[in-house]
Design goal:
The complex is a heterodimer of chains A (120) and B (110). Chain A is mainly β. Chain A is 0% helix and 57% strand. Chain A has no helices and 11 strands. In chain A, strands 2, 4, 5, 6, 9, 10 and 11 form a 7-stranded mixed β-sheet that branches. In chain A, strand 5 (46-55) and strand 6 form a beta hairpin. Chain A is globular and about 40 Å long. Chain B is mainly β and 110 residues long. Chain B has no helices and 9 strands. Classes of the chains: A mainly beta (120), B mainly beta (110). The interface between A and B is medium-sized, with 23 and 22 residues.
């Protein structure tokens, strides 16, 4: 059974960088069969996939077009976790952010969610 | 606006069968499989259907999925009050090189 535990701040000032971490238990961030994703949910935009990292002989990344210029998702093999960095935050980035695994399918396991509010 | 199009709302009475549609294009649903998720207020989304019609362990067989061409459908039979939730479809898009979600359908059990 995979468990994902998120950590990070719930309040970010406009123009600052959001940093969230997702710790994995029950699987490995380096697993050849898995992908590690970030998804956000807001009333105005619904569910929005932000990006993923995965290992297939080397590390790979895919990012959503909407955030591609300001997002970074990185694995940390020493701590078996992965992180999200989203730069230049605006109030429109206010949302609940989830980490999610993708082994059998996208979102077979989810983190608990972090409500991130962008406000000064 | 989502590239995967769902009706914003659907409704049914207990025991009824309801279907929710998801319309895409040749770069997403036309080439790749479709997943469906259930979202209850205040909780993380739950994977309901993957690979068009496969149910993860623990998902009741009242939930079923299908795909034809560039469209997919989620069917819920024997509707129950606890099925009142938002439902989202998702598919990989080869042109965008990323996952797309539909805009979501809010299901009301009358």
């Amino acid at each position: 059974q995979v468990q994902l535990q998120q950590s990070g701040p719930g309040l970010v000032k406009p123009s600052q960088t959001l940093a969230l971490t997702c710790a994995i238990s029950g699987d490995s961030v380096s697993s050849n069969g898995a992908a590690w994703n970030w998804v956000r949910q807001s009333p105005s935009r619904g569910l929005e996939w932000l990006g993923r990292t995965y290992y297939r002989s080397k590390w790979n990344h895919n990012y959503a077009v909407s955030v591609k210029s300001r997002i970074s998702i990185n694995p940390d093999t020493s701590k078996n976790q992965f992180s999200l960095q989203l730069k230049s935050m605006t109030p429109e980035d206010t949302a609940v952010y989830y980490c999610a695994s993708g082994t059998t399918a996208l979102g077979d396991y989810w983190g608990q969610g972090t409500l991130v509010t962008v406000s000064s | 606006q989502s590239v995967l199009t769902q009706p914003p709302s659907a409704s049914g009475t207990p025991g009824q069968r309801v279907t929710i549609s998801c319309s895409g294009s040749s770069s997403n649903i036309g080439r790749n499989t479709v997943n469906w998720y259930q979202e209850l207020p205040g909780t993380a989304p739950k994977l309901l259907i993957y690979n068009n019609n496969q149910r993860p362990s623990g998902v009741p067989d009242r939930f079923s999925g299908s795909k034809s061409g560039t469209s997919a459908s989620l069917a819920i039979s024997g509707l129950q009050s606890e099925d009142e939730a938002a439902y989202y479809c998702a598919a990989w898009d080869d042109s965008l090189d990323g996952w797309l979600f539909g805009g979501g359908t809010k299901l009301t059990v009358l």
